[in-house]
Amino acid sequence: MTIRIEICTIEHVCELQEISYETFNETFKAQNSPENMKAYLEKAFNREQLETELSVAGSQFLFIYVNHKVAGYMKVNINNDAQSEKMGVESLEIERVYIKKEFQKHGLGKVLLHKAIEMATEHHKTNIWLGVWEKNENAIAFYEKMGFVQTGAHAFYMGDEEQIDFIMTKTLL
Predict the structure, then answer these.
(1) CATH classification of 3-127, choosing from 1.10.260.40, 3.40.630.30, 3.40.50.11190, 3.40.50.920?
(2) What's the predicted TM-score (pTM) here?
(3) Are 3 and 65 in contact (CB under 8 A)?
(4) What percent of the chain has pLDDT over 70?
């Protein structure tokens, strides 16, 4: 199995949109109403929104490939101004990590998190943080195994339904 990580650019927006829809549906469709899923997907992953996110200074999307096939992606926000919440200049945010169902349980999440740690170190960050839905028990367990601890919570809207994301942080030293 050959694994590689590449930067996703504006030229990849269609592929990014496709994998975003697919992985978000795989992860959350069973626990949310069709109406709220549709509303969220149309808002968060429409082409214009993704093009805007791809052009933000201090943010970066990374595709992870397995044997030349896109298996997932990660979005990191390096600069405080790019982060979804202001957590300080010493922090890097992992805004999204999604792996296609067929590629889960193969260590790709670890590969992406290690890449985020490498990026944080290169940018002299001392913390990495992320938000994870309180009902996404598999993801929470994975992040805890990777050394993240819950340090807070914030509201997240799935369509018109308010949900809670745990804020999880890992200190780098």
Answers:
(1) 3.40.630.30
(2) 0.94
(3) yes
(4) 100
